[in-house]
Amino acid sequence: MHINSNKVENFASPATKSAWHEEGTSTMTNATPMPPLEVHKVCLPPHRTTVQKFRHRLSEIFFPDDPLHKFKHQTPFRKFVLGLQFFFPVFQWGPNYSLKLLKSDVISGLTIASLAIPQGISYAKLANLPPIVGLYSSFVPPLIYSVLGSSRHLAVGPVSIASLVMGTMLSGTVSYNEEPILYLKLAFTATFFAGVLQASLGFLRLGFVIDFLSKATLVGFMAGAAVIVSLQQLKGLLGIVHFTGKMQLIPVLSSVFKHKDEWSWQTILMGLCFLALLLTTRQISMRKPKLFWISAAAPLTSVILSTILVTCLKSKLHGVQVIGKLPKGLNPPSVNMLYFSGTHLALAIKTGIITGILSLTEGIAVGRTFAALRNYQVDGNKEMVAIGLMNMAGSCSSCYVTTGSFSRSAVNYNAGAQTVVSNIILASTVLITLLFLMPLFHYTPNFILAAIIITAVIGLIDYNSAYKLFKVDKLDFLACLCSFLGVLFLSVPLGLAIAVGISVFKILLHVTRPNTVVLGNIPGTQIYQNLNRYKDAVRIPSFLILAVEAPIYFANSLYLQERVMRWIREEEEWLASNNKSDMKCVILDMTAVSAIDTSGIDTIVELKKMLEKQSVKFVLANPVGSVMEKLNHSNVLESFGFEGLYLTVGEAVADISSAWKAQP
Amino acid sequence: MHINSNKVENFASPATKSAWHEEGTSTMTNATPMPPLEVHKVCLPPHRTTVQKFRHRLSEIFFPDDPLHKFKHQTPFRKFVLGLQFFFPVFQWGPNYSLKLLKSDVISGLTIASLAIPQGISYAKLANLPPIVGLYSSFVPPLIYSVLGSSRHLAVGPVSIASLVMGTMLSGTVSYNEEPILYLKLAFTATFFAGVLQASLGFLRLGFVIDFLSKATLVGFMAGAAVIVSLQQLKGLLGIVHFTGKMQLIPVLSSVFKHKDEWSWQTILMGLCFLALLLTTRQISMRKPKLFWISAAAPLTSVILSTILVTCLKSKLHGVQVIGKLPKGLNPPSVNMLYFSGTHLALAIKTGIITGILSLTEGIAVGRTFAALRNYQVDGNKEMVAIGLMNMAGSCSSCYVTTGSFSRSAVNYNAGAQTVVSNIILASTVLITLLFLMPLFHYTPNFILAAIIITAVIGLIDYNSAYKLFKVDKLDFLACLCSFLGVLFLSVPLGLAIAVGISVFKILLHVTRPNTVVLGNIPGTQIYQNLNRYKDAVRIPSFLILAVEAPIYFANSLYLQERVMRWIREEEEWLASNNKSDMKCVILDMTAVSAIDTSGIDTIVELKKMLEKQSVKFVLANPVGSVMEKLNHSNVLESFGFEGLYLTVGEAVADISSAWKAQP
Q: Which of A503, A607, B309, B516 is the most buried (most CB within 10 A)?
């Protein structure tokens, strides 16, 4: 049965305020006069076929931002140009590029290069890869991104988290020192799979899966990773030679203290001095954002200073470890090193998936942050394709996983970058370094790399966010804490899995145990609000008005049934103990019931039956469109009929009261 | 900052209808006069400490039905009596028990006994256990349940689904024919663990976990199981000796046709005749519920008839398999057969968990169904404890998993059972059978057991429900179909896991991609409704009113941000192409936003920032209590201030319009 006839006609004489308001409003003061009340019918949504609904659902899942909206109503040529711009954003900003923009981009490009070169070398060491791979990875990926990427401020290159995770996951099985070729092969293969995963997530428009890494999870995860990375740098800072490849807190700390005899006081002294210098410059730049260039220039300056120092004193400093000889020249091709069969393939895929997801999350978040600051849009799915293709290309040219780095992008933004051309400048600077300057790094000491890494990752520990989580949402804080402790004591994948599990559990818990509240009328208005929250709201005698604040699903339908019956029982007990008149009608406000399934419909039917047995009327107010549709399809509307559905609580109260008046 | 001051004071002259309604309501016809509009402030919920909130949350999770409410305000003696009644429902109905009730219970007890004895023997065979175990299981558990259980109509004993699952899971590893003692040990141990799980779920008040087996899942699962069970009975009906122990469709069917030479025409002929008889009686009872006793008496009658037939013709019927010799006497103790260490312990625990959950689901559902018919309450958690203790006791007295059976409970209800005494009568009848009548079953043929099982399980195939699912909710139907096919082609645990996965995925999908709708005003009222659904609703010029129909979580916050921006973009495009005045204010109706987390708060802040950059005002309407609390704790309320929060959309529109009027 479809309800189509006009409901208004069923109530020839609409109830007026005076007709129903007298009954029990002795407590209502300062009520302004109410207008005569009309009863509006509850509409079904416009009819759509299953195919139409399915298409709508799919388009909401995969194309919520309607990415092709620009193509509507355009000429074929314009569509072609727009398509070109869609796939290669370079065509969008390219035609308007000017010398003024170039000047800004050159300055910012050179600035991030001075940061990217020492960081690239350091992060490669974090991934247990040869330092030169870090520079290779700062050359090809920025070039690819500058053609495909749509963020104007993203500075592309290796990042700490992905480097760390790759290093620990691969080192758990293969040691770089023992099998360097296999290790390199696995690293490039993992990078390839990371790229494939990223590009396909973007291409299939499944980008929303990374949303399941909530901010709470990431705050905890990043802090845990930063602590581990910093502790691992004690290797370089203390000059320890034999160090664990593991990542958990306990093996790292025991490794530090087991090898006390390897501590080198010269390394420690110089390392601490440079660390103090770097941390001070970081503090200065944080206090005064205009002085961003101080912290941006500090790493390269420290590398130069420490290299000169070590070169001059090399005859006297035997304990100090240095990078050593680095090969000159451009990225060698590495297609032949991809590893598609063999015992370690599963490890490479697993590493690729986890580093891929993590680096994607960082890259997208960074891109969105700076896009929001400058008020332009970054299409998440397109960015994923760009980052994915960049990693696939990287894996074929001796690069490991890269993405947009938060610290370097911030410097890029502060230095005034206008377009992705700053990435081209970065790549050109790295190119010159690779071709001509590599011998200069021979005596660069390892401790300075450790100091640079610590300075970079210390910013990942975000106490403020953690404190805010604690203050605002205890369960979010729990997810944060679990991912922090999980990363620290278990492992990266396990810590992440636990945190995602808690986040999903939180959603399910909210669905399983939704809020139900009793509503009262705010005198003189048609507003019905939570009695517990609005002290001026008053109960309407003979009515119990309940609001359910969640969809009604199989997971909560029995709970809601029990809970509603408890509200009714408690109301009846209260009425009996206060000698009030009986409850004669229960109104269920469905405004916040955003969906219902078959179990939920059964609950509604069951409640109606149970209340009818107790001679209590049961009506629904304001069911949303999808709920109305399901009630209609399941023929429940028939049992409610016209008299059991109202558009607002106020109309329900007025209409039912007037019906009672009419038949005394 | 906490908002406590009175908002009303901020607007000295409340906007009147005439002041704001003129602006753009030329399309509004038949509008009744509106009253002067007051602006109400949005309240924070009453302050509660974290501990109070935590306690409230826990009590909602574990004690939603407030089970101790009867104990409030009672004398200590009364509390003791209530406590006794709480733990042993027998004290509740015992004192009022009368001869009249006893008469009804004796009749219904004898009726279900006539059904329980042949079914007990059949189901034990389904679990690959000796037939006598089925009778043992119809003796001890009903006695225990009659003391602890609170359902008046539940008929306790072995059931088809749990028997089938136990049989297939154990037979996958251990064969009863080869290692009968080990198989029995595992069956009793699994029963013990099932009982422990059931009792602890009830005791820890975690009963809601079984809610995750939604009705859709169960419809599919039961149908799949019924198909498999029926096909497996071809063994008995065709007289096949060598049959697979597996449960999937393909091995069962291939087993039937591989052993064509073992088919026995005498067995087939007699089996089909009795099956036709049983199915006919079933049809008669379904058509006329008053004739329920026809189908209730049919199994025992068929057993007696077929046994007489086979006994008389035994010299001529060589191919017909019979039950054989059954031991006389009561349940032997089996505590010494529980198996707590050894290679198969994991199998026993796994079997216990799955059969425990399944039998619990059936028992609770059956109890609730009949309680609803007679309008009494069954406390799910207490029932779980009763069923759990009954299985633990059963495992120590040679019983396997038992629960409330749907078919026998229905007969019990129809036969007029008034209390659990009918279970005592059932047990007494089984006792007499065990002591004196066992030799009579010697020549009972296997085909009659197969026919009884088929007749029983065929009722589990519920096309009507499946069709209703298809009509009302396609995703629910998908879950149903997956659990059906999963059980048929994969395995019971996998089929169930897939179906639960789909159900949870459905919840997450709804949260990830919630509905957003544009609201318009129904002329002459303060009602704002979906423009797409209510054709008489009209847009308010200069306003865009959006409603979000879901909690805002990390999983949907980015989607919502993009989606809201798209609504705004589309609105602006529409306004520009129709030469309408600019959009100046976006109102977000938060009525249906039942919760928010830190990511959601960031989205609200982000939207506000983005809209402010476009000089568009952004206000919230009617945030619910928990959302207000979080907005307050995260200091977002400060940025909205008094002018960014309204109790209703109507007040927001009126107030903002009048403010624009005031500053032209």
A: A503
